[in-house]
Amino acid sequence: MDRFHILGPTPLVGRVRASGAKNAALPALAASLLTDEPVTLHRVPRVRDLRTMCRLLDYLGVGSEEREAPAPGLPDFADPELPADPEGSQSTQSPESSRSTKSTEGSKSGASPEAVAEAVLVLRRSRPSSGADAPYELVKTMRASVLVLGPLLARYGFARVSLPGGCAIGVRPIDQHLKGLAALGADVRLAGGYVETRASRLTGARFRFDLPTVTGTENLLLAACLARGTTVLENCAREPEVADLARLLNAMGARISGAGGDTVVVDGVDGLGGAVHRVIPDRIEGGTYLIGAAITGGDVLLEQANAADLAPLLDKLAEVGVEIEVSPAGIRARVRAGDGSLRARDVATAPHPGFPTDLQAQYMALMTRAAGTSTIRETVFENRFQHVSELARMGARVHVDGRSARVDGPTELTGAAVMATDLRASACLVLAGVAAAGTTVVDRIYHLDRGYEGMELKLQGLGAHVARVTESMAT
Ligand code: EPU
After folding, report:
1. What does pTM read for this prediction?
2. Hey, whose CA ends up nearest to atom 25 of ligand 1?
3. Which of 1, 25, 328, 350 is most buried (most C-beta within 10 Å)?
4. Do residues 19 and 285 touch, judged by C-beta distance below 8 A?
């Protein structure tokens, strides 16, 4: 299993380019199930969740081919070196003495912002579907696999998908996905851990979500675009990733209006064709580096980011005392007065355009370095404070009471051995490690690899001393 070894503190300084949004690329890949023509996606982040989705699509008869972005001088990405699945490495765990370690720290000169080449993925039906069936083995490692439910049902009139189950951050039911599909006329049954849905052809309807759900809204869009008649979806998730999916579907021939707003109207069509689409930049990944600039007293220019999508974070960082500058070159975050200038500010997560739950853990790391007491309220997921006990190992003073955490700062963070528990908790610990004095070892980096493309390369490019250490059996 891989670890990050981090030697801090180091101010993050320089330029970094946002990768494509994982959470926009995942539904975009699922959209390829709706057509027999090729769907070409640019700026697909090379992260493990996308590979998991490719494996699932392959099982369902849609092959994916990676192409190098046409930019000369960039590293070959046809042979991406993603770390092995954690399940695999866990099963070969061995006594410390029989392990060899391999570090992948870059040269002192650091990686350039271009070190992570932009991926282009062509998705194309390679064979008739082996059935509209997504088995547990392929679904269990990634909740977003449920995004194949809508397109499979719309395309084949039947879909059987393993229930994704809970995860580290909460129970995360999919009742809204199922209620929505039922409103479009699907017969929905649960049996043996699977959801089975049937409808000879879905029929447009008016449906109101009980609460805004991102993948739920996306699943309904994917299904409704091939339904007979008009679907009106109310109380939709307004995340930019939903709007990005609608842009792709419209390019494929769908007729969707209002995506990104509360009410989305879908006029069903009889079939969809191929398209070429560029995935939006990852606001969560980009936001992580901006928080990184703040927590380390640094100066980072985030390139190719969309400032409007990041507004809730940028506003909060400005309140905290971080200087934010938005220009055609990107978003610059810097702390001028150095250590001690950050002010504690409360935050409550909320669906977009509120403060994203996916940046809550990273923001908490920042608040440990800010002067004063802040309250961080998590309203989206019920169990998303697992980073707290690990931050405490680094000296943070955080008290959790239900869905609120009180952070007393500023704290001099010190390096420690910590364990990542989920994707965003990992990012929080890595940022804390760069800001902390001494060595931090972040274990279980496979969580990070689900959603951050080349994070150690990007951090090295900003001057951090971060090394990926791969432990494997000595041969
Ligand atoms: N919910 C229900 N019923 C449903 C669906 C959702 O009760 O049928 C609840 C959830 O339990 C949660 C809330 O609604 O309390 C919002 O969940 P949502 O459905 O919006 O989350 P999601 O679609 O499963 C996506 C992202 C998450 C991100 C959330 C919130 C993808 C693939 N995942 O999840 O991303 O945290 O929206 O913004 O888009 C991450 O990238 O680290 C990540 C967890």
Report:
1. 0.92
2. 214
3. 25
4. yes
Distance CA 283, CA 280 (A): 9
| Tokens matching residue 321 | 């005392």
Distances (CA, A) of 283 to 80, 239, 241, 449, 471: 23, 11, 10, 17, 31
Tell me the pLDDT band of 172, cut-offs 50, 70 and 90. confident
Residue nearest to atom 28 of ligand 1 (CA): 358
Of 278, 277, 289, 315, residue with least CA distance to 17: 289
349 lines ligand 1 (CB under 6 A): no
First CA to last CA distance, the chain: 16
Q: Which atom of ligand 1 is nearest to the CA of 451?
A: 41
- Measured between alpha carbons, how far is 258 from 59 in angstroms, rounded to an integer? 33
Q: Which amino acid appears at position 390 of this protein?
A: E
Specify whether 54 is catalytic. no
The count of residues in the chain is 475
Centre of ligand 1 from the C-alpha of residue 83, in Å: 26
Q: Measure the CA–CA gap between 36 and 405, rounded to whole angstroms.
A: 49
Rounding to the nearest 10 degrees, give the CA dihedral for residues 268, 270, 276, 281. Answer: 20
Least confident of 179-183, 366-370, 434-438, 444-448: 444-448
**pLDDT bucket at 264, cuts 50 / 70 / 90:** very high
Q: What is the pLDDT of residues 86-104, one digit of tens each?
A: 333 332 222 233 333 344 4
CA–CA dist 56, 54 (Å, integer): 5
Query: Cα–Cα distance between 461 and 448 in angstroms, integer?
Result: 18
Structure tokens at 336: 């001028």
CA 359-170-363 angle, 5° bins: 15
CA of 61 to the centre of ligand 1 (A): 27
